[in-house]
């Protein structure tokens, strides 16, 4: 397999040498791929704009010794344009891209569900119909769920007893009952837990009707939970703005 | 691996941006075979740049005195500021001879994924410069790539309450590139055709 074709979302780019870029992509069939885009930083390169973060591209790649090389890229969707014109949306989107890279971690190990989730998340974010922070929180919760780390919300994370419990413990894996409750557990309002559940299920009608205060608490819990499960924190979370 | 001094040189060169292990080795052996006088001149230039060059207290451009050559020049128009990411962008724009105002060098672009936020750039310094009301137009000449655009969006929103004319270089610059690679003609045209930003 020296030449292959795939479709991917550009997660990150880093400068390489004089005018090249290393592009990190989450692809539909190959999973996480790091490849070189040659000459893309020259303003004459027609390639450059297509290999920017948030671009959904159709790609042709050449397998290299350490890094693959992008030999062709055609835009399928350019989500960067609408996102970059709205700062809160842009920062939320950046946190989504960073989460995708840090949750998939392993290169060239197919992660179709993560790819589809990110594609859907970016489409929703660029569409502009919902609070960007809600879109980000929904994406993070679902991406954790796909990776096998869904927080327990309707049962105790420790003993499994069903029901709506009062406490949330990040390191226990979600909501906990009064018996299992470790010291230092949070006590979120019932509406906050309901919001997390709505985001996890994609119930936008419920999520859009939530209060500013509940959204803030929900974001705090989701961020803490995500950072606990990922070895390295999500750097861009610090810069996410509320719309 | 080479013996002590040679390997040290290769390691040091390899830490420079854009220099890979192979290039570092090539440069090291070039220096090894070069005339002693040539190497001494290079060493002198390196030491001098660290000792004499600093950053302009007004605009953040590289300077040999507390203010840079452009900020000291009384012929430059004080009512317009062109905001760029790096000092090398000032050089690129100066080459076009299209711009007679002054600059403000941010020291990079907003890049959440690299942990670079608005507070890490010279944005507070820019706001201070605008406080006396002398400046009436601000040209946002950040790179025509995603991070440059995001920085321009952030600045435009921040500047809106001040009621200045805020413009962005014309879209003749292909997106995705670095400003420093734009040729003079394209960059000059981008200046002439700059458009107002209404956020
Ligand atoms: Zn329990
Ligand atoms: Zn200056």
UniProtKB/TrEMBL annotation, chain A:
<dbReference type="Pfam" id="PF11967">
    <property type="entry name" value="RecO_N"/>
</dbReference>
<dbReference type="InterPro" id="IPR042242">
    <property type="entry name" value="RecO_C"/>
</dbReference>
<dbReference type="InterPro" id="IPR037278">
    <property type="entry name" value="ARFGAP/RecO"/>
</dbReference>
<keyword id="KW-0233">DNA recombination</keyword>
<feature type="domain" description="DNA replication/recombination mediator RecO N-terminal">
    <location>
        <begin position="1"/>
        <end position="79"/>
    </location>
</feature>
<dbReference type="InterPro" id="IPR022572">
    <property type="entry name" value="DNA_rep/recomb_RecO_N"/>
</dbReference>
<dbReference type="GO" id="GO:0006302">
    <property type="term" value="P:double-strand break repair"/>
</dbReference>
<dbReference type="InterPro" id="IPR012340">
    <property type="entry name" value="NA-bd_OB-fold"/>
</dbReference>
<keyword id="KW-0234">DNA repair</keyword>
<dbReference type="GO" id="GO:0006310">
    <property type="term" value="P:DNA recombination"/>
</dbReference>
<keyword id="KW-0227">DNA damage</keyword>
<dbReference type="GO" id="GO:0043590">
    <property type="term" value="C:bacterial nucleoid"/>
</dbReference>
<comment type="similarity">
    <text>Belongs to the RecO family.</text>
</comment>
<comment type="function">
    <text>Involved in DNA repair and RecF pathway recombination.</text>
</comment>
<protein>
    <recommendedName>
        <fullName>DNA repair protein RecO</fullName>
    </recommendedName>
</protein>
<dbReference type="InterPro" id="IPR003717">
    <property type="entry name" value="RecO"/>
</dbReference>
<dbReference type="Pfam" id="PF02565">
    <property type="entry name" value="RecO_C"/>
</dbReference>
TrEMBL record, chain B:
<dbReference type="GO" id="GO:0003677">
    <property type="term" value="F:DNA binding"/>
</dbReference>
<comment type="similarity">
    <text>Belongs to the RecR family.</text>
</comment>
<dbReference type="InterPro" id="IPR000093">
    <property type="entry name" value="DNA_Rcmb_RecR"/>
</dbReference>
<comment type="function">
    <text>May play a role in DNA repair. It seems to be involved in an RecBC-independent recombinational process of DNA repair. It may act with RecF and RecO.</text>
</comment>
<dbReference type="InterPro" id="IPR034137">
    <property type="entry name" value="TOPRIM_RecR"/>
</dbReference>
<keyword id="KW-0227">DNA damage</keyword>
<dbReference type="Pfam" id="PF13662">
    <property type="entry name" value="Toprim_4"/>
</dbReference>
<dbReference type="Pfam" id="PF21175">
    <property type="entry name" value="RecR_C"/>
</dbReference>
<feature type="domain" description="Toprim">
    <location>
        <begin position="79"/>
        <end position="174"/>
    </location>
</feature>
<dbReference type="GO" id="GO:0006281">
    <property type="term" value="P:DNA repair"/>
</dbReference>
<dbReference type="GO" id="GO:0008270">
    <property type="term" value="F:zinc ion binding"/>
</dbReference>
<protein>
    <recommendedName>
        <fullName>Recombination protein RecR</fullName>
    </recommendedName>
</protein>
<keyword id="KW-0234">DNA repair</keyword>
<keyword id="KW-0233">DNA recombination</keyword>
<keyword id="KW-0862">Zinc</keyword>
<dbReference type="Pfam" id="PF02132">
    <property type="entry name" value="RecR_ZnF"/>
</dbReference>
<dbReference type="InterPro" id="IPR006171">
    <property type="entry name" value="TOPRIM_dom"/>
</dbReference>
<feature type="zinc finger region" description="C4-type">
    <location>
        <begin position="56"/>
        <end position="71"/>
    </location>
</feature>
<keyword id="KW-0479">Metal-binding</keyword>
<dbReference type="Pfam" id="PF21176">
    <property type="entry name" value="RecR_HhH"/>
</dbReference>
<dbReference type="InterPro" id="IPR015967">
    <property type="entry name" value="Rcmb_RecR_Znf"/>
</dbReference>
<keyword id="KW-0863">Zinc-finger</keyword>
């Amino acid at each position: 397999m020296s030449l292959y074709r795939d479709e991917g979302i550009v997660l990150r780019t880093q400068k390489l040498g004089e005018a090249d870029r290393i592009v990190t992509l989450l692809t539909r069939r190959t999973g996480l791929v790091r490849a070189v885009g040659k000459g893309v930083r020259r303003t004459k390169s027609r390639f450059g704009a297509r290999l920017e973060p948030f671009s959904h591209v159709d790609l042709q790649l050449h397998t290299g010794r350490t890094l693959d090389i992008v030999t062709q890229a055609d835009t399928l969707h350019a989500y960067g344009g609408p996102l970059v014109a709205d700062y809160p949306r842009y920062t939320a989107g950046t946190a989504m891209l960073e989460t995708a890279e840090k949750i998939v971690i392993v290169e060239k190990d197919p992660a179709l569900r993560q790819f589809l989730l990110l594609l859907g998340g970016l489409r929703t974010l660029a569409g502009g119909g919902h609070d960007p922070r809600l879109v980000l929180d929904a994406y993070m919760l679902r991406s954790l769920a796909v990776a096998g780390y869904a927080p327990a919300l309707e049962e105790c994370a420790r003993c499994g007893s069903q029901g709506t419990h009062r406490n949330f413990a990040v390191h226990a894996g979600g909501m906990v009952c009064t018996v299992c409750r470790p010291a230092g557990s949070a006590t979120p309002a019932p509406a906050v837990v309901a919001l997390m559940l709505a985001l996890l299920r994609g119930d936008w009608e419920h999520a859009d009707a939530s209060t500013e205060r509940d959204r803030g608490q929900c974001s705090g819990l989701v961020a803490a939970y995500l950072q606990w499960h990922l070895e390295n924190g999500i750097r861009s979370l610090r810069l996410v703005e509320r719309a | 691996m080479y013996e002590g001094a040679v390997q040290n040189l290769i390691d040091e060169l390899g830490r420079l941006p854009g220099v890979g292990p192979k290039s570092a080795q090539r440069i090291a052996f070039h220096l090894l075979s070069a005339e002693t006088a040539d190497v001494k001149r290079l060493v002198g230039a390196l030491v001098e740049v660290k000792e004499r060059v600093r950053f302009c207290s007004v605009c953040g451009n590289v300077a040999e005195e507390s203010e840079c050559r452009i900020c000291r020049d009384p012929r430059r128009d004080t009512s317009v500021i062109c905001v760029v990411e790096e000092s090398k962008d000032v050089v690129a724009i100066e080459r076009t001879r299209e711009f007679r105002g002054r600059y403000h060098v941010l020291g990079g672009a907003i890049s959440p994924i690299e942990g670079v936020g608005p507070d890490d750039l010279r944005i507070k310094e820019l706001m201070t410069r605008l406080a006396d009301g002398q400046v009436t137009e601000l040209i946002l000449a950040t790179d025509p790539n995603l991070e440059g655009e995001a920085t321009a969006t952030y600045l435009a929103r921040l500047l809106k309450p001040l009621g200045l004319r805020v413009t962005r270089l014309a879209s003749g610059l292909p997106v995705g590139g670095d400003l420093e690679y734009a040729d003079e003609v394209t960059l000059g045209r981008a200046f002439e055709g700059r458009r107002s930003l209404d956020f």
